[in-house]
Amino acid sequence: MACIDLARVRLTDPAGVGRITPVGASAARAAGRRRRERAATGERRAVSLVLPAMSSSREPVGGGADHFQRPGWLTKNVFNRLVAGLTRMGISIWGSRVLEVRGRSSGQWRRTPVNLLSDGGERYLVAPRGNTQWARNLRASGEGRLLVGRRSERFGAEELEDHDKAPVLRAYLRRWKAEVGVFFEGVGPDSPDEDLARIAPNHPVFRLSAKAP
């Protein structure tokens, strides 16, 4: 009859069935294998949680629906306020206006300084910093008001398709490159049409039409 070294076994069945499991190198290997299996299962679960979120994320429409460059502190707190203040006093700087448009969620009027471009008998608003809040609001409402001093002008707005933007962006940069050129990825008024077409999806452009008061 073989002898069993009780120092090298352990009972693993609390119900008393008496299964004997060797303790030593083989048990350590088994424990390590179980840990690796649990880790692999955890990784698979993590991947299964991440992949649906990635696949459901919204793709940018036209390549630039999510493009937005925040203004720096100086622009937001000094330059914009200065231009808006002067424009409200009736002093237009390089075609500056105060744009008034209803918020797409709140319905409240929102104001921001903009540059009004007149080119080829048409008037345009260009969003140099991309898909800004005022651009989103104007896209949703399709109308707004332009203010200079006490004068208020209602307008309708039609957003241009990307393939129609290049000549408008060129005219805009020709007039305001010194002010806003930093937002256009090195593209300027003398750049090839291909470069202007490349950045067009990143900059909403609206053609304005007059509306009765």
Describe the structure.
With 213 residues, this protein is an alpha+beta fold. The protein has two domains: 9-55; 73-210, Roll (Pnp Oxidase, Chain A), CATH 2.30.110.10. The protein contains five helices and eight strands. The protein has helices spanning 25-55, 73-88, 133-141, 166-180, 193-199, and strands at 9-11, 20-22, 96-102, 109-119, 122-126, 143-148, 151-159, 205-210. Strands 3-4-5-8-7-6 form a six-stranded antiparallel beta barrel. It has a two-stranded antiparallel ribbon with strand order 1-2. Strand 3 (96-102) and strand 4 (109-119) form a beta hairpin. The chain is elongated and about 90 Å long. The termini are far apart. The relative contact order is 0.12. The model is unreliable at 6-23 and 40-63 (pLDDT under 50).
